[in-house]
Amino acid sequence: MSYLDQFMQQWKTYLQQQLSLCGMNYIVSEAGDAADIKTNSLAYFSWLRTTSGANKSFDESRDEVAWIMLEKQLKAFAEKAEKGTFDLVSKLHLEENQIQIVLNFSYDDEQHIVYVS
């Protein structure tokens, strides 16, 4: 599984937990996991935008921006992970499956985006 896929699964797990805390269900469709993650993310971002201290001038289009920003961050971390894992495997003689990368997600209500660290 690629790092991007792994990171998307970490986001999905986080998203499912957060939706549950909000009293919402994670919806599964026949469109596939990638489409479900995006659809549920947009629903979560919409909920955050309307219930948090997010700028009241933000509309639904800002939810799409939040998704694009999250996706870009996950892709960037996946690229770094690929390079970093290769270095660790070659220098420390580790197996790739010995390396585990866990992401943290935090919501910024002023910008209405999720930061990944």
Describe this structure in words.
With 117 residues, this protein is mainly alpha-helical. The chain has one domain. The protein is 61% helix and 7% strand. A two-stranded antiparallel ribbon has the order 1-2. Helix 1 (3-21) packs across helix 2 (33-51) and helix 1 crosses helix 3. It is elongated. It starts with a helix and ends with a strand.
SSE arrangement:
Layout: H1 3-21, H2 33-51, H3 60-92, E1 105-108, E2 113-116
Antiparallel strand pairs: 1-2
Give the averaged pLDDT, no decimals.
92
Termini gap:
20 Å
What structural category do the secondary elements indicate?
mainly alpha
Residue stretches low in confidence (pLDDT < 50, at least 5 long) are none
Written as H for each helix and E for each strand, in order along the chain, the element string is HHHEE
Arrangement of strands in the largest sheet: 1-2
By DSSP, the count of extended strands is 2
Radius of gyration: 16 Å
Query: Any idea how many domains?
Result: 1
Estimate the global geometry from the Cα principal axes: elongated
Largest sheet: 2 strands, antiparallel
Helix content: 55-70%
Q: DSSP strand (E) fraction? A: 5-15%
Total DSSP helices: 3
